[in-house]
Amino acid sequence: MKSKDLSIEIRGEQQEVAIVRLTRPAKRNALNDGLVEAIRKAFENMPATVRAAVIDGEGEHFCAGLDLSELSERDAGQGMLHSRAWHVALERVQYGPVPVVAALHGAVVGGGLELASACHIRVADDSTFYALPEGSRGIFVGGGGSVRIPRLIGVSRMTDMMLTGRVYNAADGERIGLAQYLVPTGTAFDKAFELAQRIAQNAPLTNYSLMHALPRIAEQPADHGFMTEALMSAIAQSAPEAKSRVRAFLEGRAAKVQKA
After folding, report:
1. Minimal CA–CA distance to 52: which of 208, 235, 241?
2. What are the extents of the domains in the chain?
3. In the structure, what pLDDT confidence band is assigned to residue 149 with cuts at 50, 70 and 90?
4. What is the topology classification, in CATH, of domain 6-200?
5. Catalytic residue positions?
6. What are the C-alpha distances in Å from 20 to residues 32, 159, 185, 257, 258?
7. Interhelix angle for 145-153 vs 111-118, to 10°?
8. Whole-angstrom Cα distance, residue 171 to residue 241?
């Protein structure tokens, strides 16, 4: 499947991994309305075989943010509706059908960082750099970044990035929590695909719990979180696939955890 700004390829022996690639390399994969809409549709219409996804950017950059050529034509009301449309699209990434791994390289800037923060795992290569230049351009994040990015790095670090234009390189970005993995230049996609294949082997209900329940538990008061955890634990372990996997472990047919 391919549109003007986005391509979707299904890989794996069981067609279990979707590769969702931004295809505007001449614009450093800047996000316009068409591309944001295509991302929403991609995650709303995943084939039933898919159990994990990778988001990647064609060319030298993951995503350089909002296509500012569209911004100048909006009034305040249109700007609010535009932001809400981004919220819907990126919610489909974060709370969609499958876990999503971002393969980061080059620019992960502005809206590109907002997109990356909606993914569940972020793999950066050594060419990656992060920035939120909205402050210097007289605007504010509008794709959910004010909610998601502080959960990764804290309010004070995001404030610094927007007030001063601070740019984080790949190593410092991994250190503060913008990525969970750091790999050599040119290998982010390979690592992301490897992780997606591994994730796709998990029980679907466990993956669903991690995507949909865990972030909400983190926001709940402790007593509510414990109750939600108990309910999700009971539901997950009651699934036939979970029972089969536990039985395989008890019978010595499943691998044990080894030291890394």
Report:
1. 208
2. 6-200, 204-250
3. very high
4. 2-enoyl-CoA Hydratase; Chain A, domain 1 (3.90.226)
5. 114, 134
6. 16, 30, 20, 31, 32
7. 70
8. 39
The pLDDT score that the predictor gives to residue 72 is: 66
Letter string b/e over residues 134-161, b meaning 16 or more CB atoms within 10 A of that residue's CB? bbeeeeebbbbbeebbeebbeeebbeeb
Beta strands in 105-244 (DSSP E): 107-109, 121-125, 129-131, 168-169, 181-183
- 87: three-class secondary structure by DSSP: helix
Q: Each residue of 42-59: pLDDT tens digit?
A: 999 999 999 999 999 999
Pairing of strands 129-131, 121-125: unpaired
pTM over 0.70: yes
Which H/E stretch holds residue 55?
strand 52-57
AA letter at 246: V
| CATH number 3.40.50.2300 is the correct assignment for the domain at 204-250 | no
Contact 118, 94 (CB under 8 A): yes
The C-alpha atoms of residue 60 and residue 186 are separated, in whole angstroms, by 9
Maximum Cα–Cα distance across the chain: 65
Gyration radius of the chain's alpha carbons: 19
Q: How far apart (Å, rounded) are the C-alpha atoms in residues 71 and 75?
A: 9
